[in-house]
Amino acid sequence: MTLNRAEAIGFDLHQLEAPSVSGNSKHKYLRSGKNQKYIFIYHACSANAPLHVFAVFFPSGLVKLHIVDPATRRQAIPRLREGYTEIKKKRDEHFGSSSFVYPDTRDFTTTYHSTDITALKAISRELGVAEDQNYIIVLSSSKDNSYFEMNVPKLARFPVLSMAKAKSAHTLDVFPWQSHVVGKMLNRYLAMGGWLDRSMALSEYYDIPLGHIEGDQPLQLSDITFARRLVQQDMVLWWSSSELPDLGGMETDKRPTDDLPKTEFTMPGAYSHVCLEIAVRNLAINSVVHSLVINELEGSGGSTAFDSVSRTLDEYAQGDGQKDISLGESNVPVQTFSILKAMVKAWLTDRLQGELEGVECPSVLTVDHFWRWISSSASNMYDPSLHRFVHGLMRKTFVQLLAEFKRLGSHVIYADFSKILLATSKPPGTAHAYATYINTAVTSHELFQHIYLRNDCFYDYLLFMDQANWGGIVCENPLALEPPEELSIMMKLNIAEFLPQPAQKEITSIIQYFVVSLFKIRQKTNETARVPLRPLQNGDPPGATQHDFQMKDEVENVRQFIAGKLTRRMLRTVGNIQEQYREAMMNEETAVEWQFPVLPGSHLHMSNPPLEFIKFACAIFQLAKEYHVEIGLVKRNALDLIGVKEFASEAIFRNPCEPLKLFNVPCKHCDALKDFDFCRDPELLPAQGETGPPKWVCFNCKGEYDRTLIEFSLIRVVWAMERNFAGQDLKCSKCKQIQGDYVSRWCHCSGSYQLTIGKAEVKRKLKTVVNVAIVHSMNRLKECAQMMLSNWL
């Protein structure tokens, strides 16, 4: 249909054809923003007082400030003209120019108002003068657009674009606010040009009008792109704003599925060779793109593969066609996964092409946030089956990745979807070259081509119990051939925080002494390894090497250290703690210091500080498994000192912290994955003396996590606890077999049936959830967990 005919008789939407979106097209969307005229409106306010700052930036002329300040002695906003010049110069040097041309200087005028309503009416009058001049308004405020639409009538005559509603850039809850608002307002205005360029690029690439890209951009763009591809293949959409997809009511009839399998691998121990920590990114994208390779590695293919060819309607009618592909409990239509894979491949191809050309492709946004889009129920195209299916692919790929590291000679200490901790067989000085080699070798494999690996940290010696309890010697310069003069020690001891305050210092000191001493013995062995080779004696065993003799000497030196220095220091420390504890209990004021702290994960009743100190310290020592006999003697001697038998029930170590973890939480800013350990991660717990809920910051981009989404995820965990308990199987108390029917009262071995998940275990977990909710100020979670816990009592 021609343009003249459309103007004469009109047209329907289905008669419109999409224009070419090739990069060589002469017609750019809105001419890439050139020759457009913008009015920038900035708004900052205080949450605790009726304080507002409105600023209207026209392309030229005065910048008009409208201020609502209830103070009797108003202070003017200082250095506006000078601040604009300085900030513009810095941003031009750092970010360069944009399609929007800023004037070199700006002059400001200020008007005071009694309320924000009168200020907005004044802004409406100013906009009325320019309503017929083809301006586009850019709003920067933490308020919703409805706030301005209701109080600025003339706003309806303009197209309106909204920048991100970050609270930090629009708050006046600082003192003095006059000096702080200058930088916030001018930085926001000078960032508008770059924001417009990025928004134009996103609009053109994803074929979405500029004013419709808002909210959570990665999720919105992914939803629309995926939905369009499904519609092109004549597939019915399950678009839904709720947590469940719209399947015509079938979504409510599906039985609840089990929790996603855990993706955390831990191997406690003492590692005397160099260990390296590797960050992992783009695992989800890589798993989808290389799903066919996963099939081939597992021996599946043909009609059972994820990429099997489409079938005809006749084949489906005869029952010969494969309708779904399954992985665990997830069933996904073949066509749906093929469309998803084609979309991801297109994004990835455009991104790689942009990197070759030296420009940033808009597909980087959706590629980086792919896993968050797949796993987030905030997505309109969220499908639990698709989420579970992609998670299964990621897990298979991750297992193959760990196997590849093991094949290259490394040992996995700890691994999750975001981080891998490897133990190498290399001495200090050669670890950096080895780390570069294994990363290059792994990513050159076809299955791991799009996974990004980065070496984050090196350890010359590592004592590892779990992610919350470890200590090591950090290698600050991996390229150095000679050992450093001063050792850098990094330790995390969550179990120490459950001891009284005086005992915490002692256990940290003795664990540090243990780590440093074992490292120095190992270091001495490495130095002797550089001496010239010596001839073997006739009495030496066949096949013996110089390395074997050095290892034998190292083992003997460590045993002597444990039997001598460590035992004496341990007994002396236990004696001091016992003496201080007895003296403190004589006085009510000092007795408070020796009380065991109650933390979110506390679930044990502890009353004997010397005993708990021995149990905790020896549990860390016993990570050196080669010397478990010697460590056992240390523990027995220490227990004898306080009058406790070695094999008594109270001498058995139990972790004092009941963990509550949320796995693979993506950052909404960079999509980096993090396992939230609410009871043991010190970065999540509020600092001492801090009021209000703590801020949870991403380790990669320093962006803040969405506490509300995390709270609702924990509420779903609580519901899953109740559901799993109610729907659990019964097992025999003697042979541990699961009950095979629903009527028999006794097992065939004459054993009685019992619960698989004990009631006391669920109550303990619910109490932990309540404690976490109280510490982190999660009122909804607290109410939900307390109500469920009260029904269990």
From TrEMBL:
Q: Which InterPro entries does the record cross-reference, listed alphabetically?
A: DNA_pol_e_suA_C, POL2, Znf-DPOE
| GO molecular function annotations of the record | 4 iron, 4 sulfur cluster binding; DNA binding; DNA-directed DNA polymerase activity; single-stranded DNA 3'-5' DNA exonuclease activity; zinc ion binding
Q: What GO biological process terms does the UniProt entry carry, in alphabetical order? A: base-excision repair, gap-filling; DNA replication proofreading; leading strand elongation; mitotic cell cycle; nucleotide-excision repair, DNA gap filling
Stretches assigned to the DNA polymerase epsilon catalytic subunit A C-terminal domain? 79-473
Q: What is this protein called?
A: DNA polymerase epsilon catalytic subunit
EC number(s) from the headed UniProt entry: 2.7.7.7
Species this chain originates from = Lentinula edodes
Q: Does the keyword Iron apply?
A: yes
Family, according to the entry, reads as follows:
Belongs to the DNA polymerase type-B family.
Its predominant location is nucleus
Q: What does this protein do?
A: DNA polymerase II participates in chromosomal DNA replication.
Which reaction does this enzyme catalyse, per its entry? DNA(n) + a 2'-deoxyribonucleoside 5'-triphosphate = DNA(n+1) + diphosphate
UniProt GO cellular component terms: epsilon DNA polymerase complex
Which EC class does it fall in? transferase
Query: Which cofactors is this protein said to need?
Result: [4Fe-4S] cluster
**Where is the protein found, in the record's own terms?**
Nucleus
UniProt KW keywords: 4Fe-4S, DNA replication, DNA-binding, DNA-directed DNA polymerase, Iron, Iron-sulfur, Metal-binding, Nucleotidyltransferase, Nucleus, Transferase, Zinc, Zinc-finger
